[in-house]
Write a structure and sequence with these properties.
The chain is of the alpha+beta class and 563 residues long. It contains 11 helices and 32 strands. The strands form 6 sheets. It has an 18-stranded mixed β-sheet that branches. The longest helix has 20 residues. It starts with 5 loop residues before the first strand and ends in a 27-residue tail after the last helix.
């Protein structure tokens, strides 16, 4: 990879215009169904706060909560968090502001307004876009690998470190490649400068991240034999249960739980747009079995049956059938089964009923659970349609609503970021969504109707860092059409076949840190060391050419490939 900056096409990109309304109009997600992918808050240590999309209220972040576009996280002093999106894991250090600008089947666009973010990209599918945006630059993650970004509190400095992989940094009308084992400090917003160096010694956050990688690698070695590789949370299961071959369903997972336990009983219901009523389980393994696959009952034990390996996982807010008790002062449900979806209704203890207020106010189910007798359970009509119940504010905030939550400083919270991919429109405010649901008889809104309520502004305050001509083509792109908002030189180059995740997710070992990894000290430059410019500093940045001037590609540059 070349060590010189590349000029972005067109002089207008150097200014990076502020986008507060124009780009949002054409980038609405007007699809007929919600995205198939979400992020799971898989770990939270210390004080981790969440501001759900569409609200202006912060609450304590709860593990296993699904996160999507517009949800904002803040890790306070001496705190950290981890998010899993299936083919990548995101880890947040202390005093870090983070959110998703976009998260769908093809794009994972994140923003970090301050603090430290480590992203471990396990696999990168053809056409997938992974991007991290900060107040002074946008980073495209071009290969599977381990990346770390450190954003200063002032927002004018970002350090980009690549342990494994390759990244492309865009900002101020320029682009800088960052290769494996490099650390580059980018300073300035309107005039970006880059100082190249080698990686420094790992700190405590790096060590924690490496430890998590080793643990997840061991778990994945078991899970990949049974679970599709993009099943979020599937790697956890081997530590909390056993896989057994069943005559009817093939391999199923049996959790280590109490004899009277039943699925969807230890947790609470929350409202997460655009899906609606969503189950948040309290078990440390409680994500994959409640959002993918089906539950079966065999030999007086519950077991989870995943989708067949080689198939694509599709997220669901919950896989339950609702019973007629929801029409009165109670709400009832039971887990969907394999084959006959309603077969579990006849399993003793499968049907759970709670008072309506427990359901609406996101209270824990277990203390209020009423086990419906079998003779009553079979008498109710079952349906997969969600209850026609209008959510309230606490339905969105979850079980931690009302508790004191640490919040980021306003200067960090509202800071604009530089983007290469134009984000979609902002989520609908909960107050507006609630009014529409109430007018719809308490029934959730179709995704298309929800999209029409979205405001005509992007998901965050952003500065677009791409060529103006390309930006205009982005605004004209119809919903669902392939992206064309990336300059030809910045498109991901074809990856060798071994970088793609096979159906069984055979992840190349070189993308994980080995357990006994010893990092040679001679490879790292101490923070105080001033590295001579001829060794690491790229040639002077070439500014963007005047508008309309075509750049002259070098002989080694690849030609753009269609998507």
């Amino acid at each position: 990879m070349r060590m010189r900056p590349l000029a972005i096409l067109g002089g207008a990109a150097a200014a990076m215009l502020m986008c507060l309304g124009a780009i949002g109009t054409a980038l609405a997600q007007d699809g007929a169904s919600p995205p198939d992918r979400v992020a799971r808050l898989s770990d939270a240590q210390g004080s981790v706060s969440l501001e759900p999309a569409g609200t202006t209220s912060w609450t304590g972040a709860v593990p296993n909560r699904p996160l999507t576009i517009g949800d904002r996280l803040w890790t306070d002093q001496d705190s950290r968090a981890e998010l899993d999106i299936g083919d990548a894991v995101i880890r947040l250090g202390s005093t870090t502001g983070f959110s998703f600008l976009n998260l769908d089947d093809q794009t994972a666009q994140m923003q970090a307004t301050a603090g430290t973010v480590i992203v471990h990209v396990r696999s990168l599918a053809t056409g997938e876009e992974d991007e991290i945006d900060t107040p002074n630059l946008a980073v495209t993650l071009e290969q599977p690998g381990i990346y770390r970004l450190e954003v200063s509190d002032s927002g004018d400095t970002t350090i980009v470190k690549v342990d494994e992989g390759a990244a492309l940094v865009t900002g101020d009308g320029l682009s800088f490649p960052v290769a494996s084992q490099q650390s580059v400090t980018f300073t300035g917003v309107s005039a970006l400068t880059a100082d190249y160096a080698m990686l420094g010694a790992p700190d405590e956050l790096d060590e924690w991240s490496l430890q998590r990688d080793r643990q997840e690698e061991q778990q994945a070695a078991v899970a990949q034999q049974y679970v599709p590789p993009d099943t979020v949370g599937g790697d956890d299961l081997s530590s909390y249960g056993s896989w057994e071959d069943t005559p009817d369903w093939g391999y199923a997972w049996f959790p280590d739980v109490a004899a009277d336990w039943a699925p969807y009983t230890l947790g609470s219901w929350v409202w997460v747009a655009p899906w609606g009523w969503t189950w948040v389980d309290e078990e440390p393994w409680g994500f994959a079995p409640f959002h993918y696959g089906r539950w079966g009952y065999r030999n007086r034990r519950w077991c989870w049956i995943p989708a067949r390996r080689g198939t694509r996982s599709v997220y669901a807010p919950a896989l339950v059938a609702w019973i007629g008790a929801r029409a009165g002062s109670r709400v009832g449900w039971f887990p969907l089964g394999p084959g006959d979806a309603y077969a579990n209704r006849e399993v003793p203890g499968a049907v759970t009923v709670v008072p309506r207020r427990v359901f609406i106010f996101a209270q824990p189910v277990a203390p209020h659970r009423v086990i419906l007798p079998l003779r009553e359970a079979v008498g109710f009509q079952a349906t997969t349609a969600a209850p026609a119940i209008t959510p309230v504010r606490q339905s969105v905030l979850g079980a931690s609503a009302g508790r004191l939550a640490r919040t980021p400083p306003p200067a960090i919270l509202n800071r604009p970021v530089v983007v290469r991919l134009a984000p979609p429109r902002a989520p609908v405010s909960f107050a507006r969504e609630q009014a529409a649901i109430r007018a719809n008889g308490g029934r959730p809104l179709p995704v298309a109707d929800l999209a029409r309520l979205q405001p005509n502004v992007p998901a965050a305050r952003v500065r677009l860092a791409t060529d103006m001509l390309i930006r205009e083509r982005v605004l004209q792109r119809p919903a669902g059409a392939p992206r064309a908002d990336r300059p030809p030189w910045a498109r991901s180059r074809p990856m060798p076949e071994e970088h793609y995740a096979a159906p069984g997710r055979q992840i190349p070992l070189q993308h994980f840190a080995p357990s006994g990894r010893q990092i040679p000290t001679q490879r790292f430059a101490p923070p105080e060391r001033q590295i001579s410019q001829p060794h690491f500093s790229p040639p002077p940045a070439a500014r963007a050419a005047p508008a309309g001037a075509a750049p002259s590609p070098s002989a080694g540059e690849r030609q753009p490939s269609g998507r």
